[in-house]
Amino acid sequence: MIQQNDRSLVDRMRPRYRVVDTGENRCVLRVGERETEYWCPAGGGYVHIVTRTQPGTLGQQVCDGLRSLGSTLRFTPAADRRLAHLIRRHARKAFAPDRDGYAWGEHNFGGAS
């Protein structure tokens, strides 16, 4: 288990992320140098990753904790005014250290490297 004085080291090692709101139903998650763009229908629905390699197609659906497996994320304008709010909440969950303060796990944020 990590000691209290080691917390600052864990905080420095945690990946830095930023969610950029680019519209009601679009946003970009930046983790270091990597960017992943998310999209959903304007009236709400399943959240998808925008794929630049196959324009005009729906990308992979995003799941709980921004992973590729699990419960599929669904955006509802009544619950989250903008898609960025939903993505930001799941990014916080994805990057939070576990109860022992260790690994935040291997996450697949869907964007192509």
Identify the notable features of this structure and list them briefly.
alpha+beta, 2 helices, 18% helix, globular, disordered C terminus
Number of domains: 1
Specify the overall morphology: globular
What helical percentage do the residues reach? 10-25%
Mean pLDDT figure: 76
Low-confidence runs: 102-113
Distance between the termini: 33 Å
Strand content: 15-25%
The major sheet is characterized as: 4 strands, antiparallel
What does this structure look like?
- It is a single chain.
- This protein has 113 residues and is of the alpha+beta class.
- It has one domain (16-95).
- The protein is built from 2 helices and 6 strands, in the order αββββββα.
- It has helices at residues 7-13, 83-95; strands at residues 17-23, 26-31, 34-39, 45-46, 48-49, 74-75.
- The chain has a 4-stranded antiparallel β-sheet with strand order 1-2-3-5, with helices on one face.
- β2 and β3 form a beta hairpin.
- The chain starts with 6 loop residues before the first helix and ends in an 18-residue tail after the last helix.
- Mean pLDDT is 76; it is low at 102-113.
Write the layout of secondary structure elements.
Elements: H1 7-13, E1 17-23, E2 26-31, E3 34-39, E4 45-46, E5 48-49, E6 74-75, H2 83-95
Antiparallel strand pairs: 1-2, 2-3, 3-5, 4-6
